[in-house]
Amino acid sequence: MPVLYKVLVEGEWSFEMDADALNAYDMARTDATSVHVLSDHQSYETNILQADFNDKHYRISVNGKPYSVQISDNLDQLISDMGFELGSARNISQIEAPMPGLILDIQVSEGDTVREGDALLVLEAMKMENVILSPREGVVKKVAVTRGMAVDKKHLLLEFE
Asked: Which residues in 81-112 are b (16+ Cβ under 10 Å) and which e?
């Protein structure tokens, strides 16, 4: 299955493309951050002004005009669909089940302080054990499930203060 990239320009204009779509363009790197592009007999000088590879956010210019560009791949889109967007981790106030399953273990209690990446609970789904990790630092306000409980997708698992 080819990797499908979703591109968002200036937070308003979006399109999807795969790596093969780039082959339609005649491109030549002119230096470490610049590429000259020919498309439909038009010439474009592109430059990377800023790059945040972890957030996949770029500031580019095309023929001198700057643009903000966000790029997400298949994995980023799946994470977003599951409700675990990486950029919004600090705003998360509750954790919901990403899929139906059975709560095998709960590793935190109400009032516990957790760090980003700490194990919160174990959810068994499709015969696999999935460790749900904390997306941020915080204090556990409420644990809304019990060991052995069956949950549906989007079922509230726990809340942060």
From this structure: eebbeeeeeeebeebbbbeebebeebebeeee
